[in-house]
Amino acid sequence: MRKDTHPARTAWLVVGGLVAFMLVLAGCGSSGGSGSTGGGTSNELQKLGKGEGQVNLISWAGYVEPEWVKPFEAETGCKVNNKIGGTSDEMVKLMETGEYDGVSASGNASARLVAAGLVDPVNVGLVPNYKTIFPDLKNQPYNTFESVHYGIPHGRGANLLMWNADDVKPAPTSWNVTLDPQVAAKYKGKISQYDDPMSIAEGAVYLKAHQPELGIDNPYELNEEQFEAAVDLMKEQRANVGEYWGEAAKQISAFANGDDQVGTTWQYQYFALKAEGEPMAASPASQGFLPKEGATGWSDTWMISSKAKHPNCMYMWMNYIVSPKANAEVAEFFGEAPAQEKACDETKDKNFCTKYHADNPAFWKRVYYWETPVAECGDGEDNCMDYNDWVKAWTSIKG
Amino acid sequence: MAAEAVVAKRSAGRRLAGLFYGRPRLQVGSLLTGPAAWLVVLYLGSLGVLLITAFWTVDPLSGKVVQGFSLENFEALIDEPVYREIVWRTVRTAALVTITDAIIAFPIAFYMAKVASRRGKGLLVVAVLMPLWSSYLVKVLSWRTILSEGGVLNWLLDPIGLHGPGYGMTAVWLVMSYLWLPYMILPIYAGLERIPNSLISASEDLGAPPFTTFRRVILPLAFPAVVAGSIFTFSLTLGDYITPKLVSNSQFIGTAISSSITNDLPFAAALALIPIVVMIAYLSVARKLGAFDHV
């Protein structure tokens, strides 16, 4: 049909030449780049110097707010530049740029940050407020690696089961309302599930209670059999899921419009929906209960970048954010249990720490903080499924 | 003094002009260098980088990209049935949206090109282009609200005892067909404009009934334009990831890329090659059908 095939042939030659050129270019780039990415040497700060005038942070939404940032800036002269991270994966990517001094890492980011050499050990001697942090937050597998401290605990909370009290009766006390196929079928198409591989751990928490023969201990350390069982459970759940939510706003609109009635959520969405006047009920720690199986949760840690350009200011920030007053402010704003013991004297609501079980280690025994799944699972053997497996499985769960 | 300066200035301009005089290659070359560099370096260059990245891997613990050569990503794409399903679902939806848009667009384009008055034609062109003035995101979010359980669609359908489709594949099909319709109407309109009215009259004079005229004269002449429009609707659906995320739970190629991009960039790159391959196949078919004959 074409009269002239000649120009087409020329075009292909040009494209071919370009591809060859790019290959050469990339080859040069990779050989040059690989040498410089060694990193990971432990060089914790020995002595606190003068502030550098600014500090660049990555944080969860609600952790770095003007109310407590302004006093910090006035006190130390360190101007705070904050970048909000949407997910743990995003935070790790941002830290790779080397442009930031520190990050409020959840447990499913911290191990990755340490393994990649993106964060440095923290000299807790230079953080006076570390002394009075709740003991059950110290030396945890997500902030201390081979007895070396890699961060300052910030606060903790449990992921919630939330439901629309008008539609879901009686009030559920177990995750079976979303995970047991028979029970969940009642809310087919109305179940809301967090769109993240970490949700597989919710399945594992449920199985730990309901199928003890699987022998699940830590829901993030799953061998192949346990992992398959959790994945199968989440696959079964798929038929009943109304919506997988990746961002808070999507879940809020789904509950407000009646598309979803019950599911996993965070404090933030629950408070937001309550504020809109929606008839929401949930299982926050403040109401003294978790679904009977327990729940997944988070325990966040401020970590310092190994490429920090403003290490002194970062140390000042880490000390400040766990100072009694600032830690109380952030905990009340965000709706989480503070990490600082003395923060409990500073909260506006005098019962805040009791409501959020801040000083009740027994409560937190049933909360499984997010961790990065790794192949080496506690017993020294490499027979657990790693995070890559989790990510791939999550894709196949959603179908 | 001043006169000398003017002469010097002019002579500089003259010299530059002299440089180009009688050298057509230099003229064209200097004119095209900028745009060509843009096309080659930024457009094709990034595609090349994408191709290379697809052969890299990620260290499972640190999440760092390991540069090297491995077919791991492609093996995963082939071995995991879920990706075949995702690709098939995406291509199927793209085809469905394209057919829907072609069916809706043809009568509108025909009316615009051959029936409407000059004034009516102008108004219709504006009406077709109007949705493009508002942001893509606003339109998708509006559809999300329309289709929601307590949304306006259910409110309308409720009195006659019906229920909207809710979120899901039907919603994706509906929203995509809405979004890309103008991209189908405009090429068909341009193609129909180009058909001389005399051909239609001649067909009628020779005794062909209207449907025969349509089938034997208009459609063959306008078909390349339909194919040209289908390239837009097909490729836009193939690459979209926001609409599926907002009005369905189904994974498309785009959503799979976006969810693996933060954890596993090389795998995302491998996934991104699929729409490129599909589009190359589609474009070669379109070329055979004559979509580029008048470009």
Describe this structure in words.
The complex is a heterodimer of chains A (about 400) and B (about 300). Chain A is about 40% helix and about 15% strand. Chain A has about 400 residues and is α/β, with parallel strands linked by helices. In chain A, the strands form three sheets. In chain A, strands 1, 2, 3, 4, 7, 13, 14 and 15 form an eight-stranded mixed sheet that branches. Chain A is globular and about 60 Å long. The longest helix of chain B is centred in the N-terminal third of the chain and has 35 residues, at about 80-115. Chain B has two domains: about 1-55, no CATH class; about 70-290, MetI-like (MetI-like fold, Orthogonal Bundle). Chain B has 13 helices and two strands; from the N terminus they run ααββααααααααααα. In chain B, a hairpin with a 6-residue loop joins β1 and β2. The interface of A and B includes residues 15, 111, 253, 259 and 391 of A.
Topology:
The complex is a heterodimer of chains A (399) and B (295).
Chain A: H1 6-33, E1 54-59, H2 66-76, E2 79-84, H3 88-96, E3 102-105, H4 107-115, E4 119-120, E5 144-145, E6 148-149, E7 152-158, E8 160-164, H5 176-179, H6 181-184, E9 191-194, H7 199-210, H8 224-238, E10 241-245, H9 248-256, E11 262-265, H10 267-275, E12 280-282, E13 295-305, H11 311-321, H12 324-334, E14 337-338, H13 352-355, H14 361-364, E15 367-369, H15 387-398
Parallel strand pairs in A: 1-2, 1-3, 9-10, 9-11, 13-15
Antiparallel strand pairs in A: 3-13, 4-13, 5-6, 7-13, 7-14, 8-11, 8-12
Chain B: H1 2-20, H2 24-53, E1 57-58, E2 65-66, H3 72-79, H4 81-115, H5 118-129, H6 136-147, H7 152-157, H8 169-193, H9 197-205, H10 210-239, H11 242-247, H12 253-260, H13 265-288
Antiparallel strand pairs in B: 1-2
Helix pairs in contact in B: 4-8, 4-10, 8-10, 9-10, 10-13, 12-13
CATH topology of the largest domain in chain A: D-Maltodextrin-Binding Protein, domain 2
Order of helices and strands of chain B: HHEEHHHHHHHHHHH
Share of helical residues of chain A: 25-40%
Instruction: Give a short account of the largest sheet of chain B.
Output: 2 strands, antiparallel
What is the overall shape of chain B? globular
Rg of chain B is 26 Å
- Report mean pLDDT of chain B, rounded to a whole number: 89
Largest sheet of chain A: 8 strands, mixed
Q: How many structural units, i.e. domains of chain B?
A: 2
Beta-strand level of the residues of chain B, as a percent range?
under 5%
The largest contact between protein chains, plus residue counts on each side, is: A-B, 48 and 41 residues
Which residues of chain A form runs of ≥5 with pLDDT under 50? Answer: 1-5, 28-41
| CATH domain topology of the largest domain in chain B | MetI-like fold
For the biggest β-sheet of chain B, the strand order reads 1-2
CATH class wording of the largest domain in chain A: Alpha Beta
- Shape, per Cα inertia axes of chain A: globular
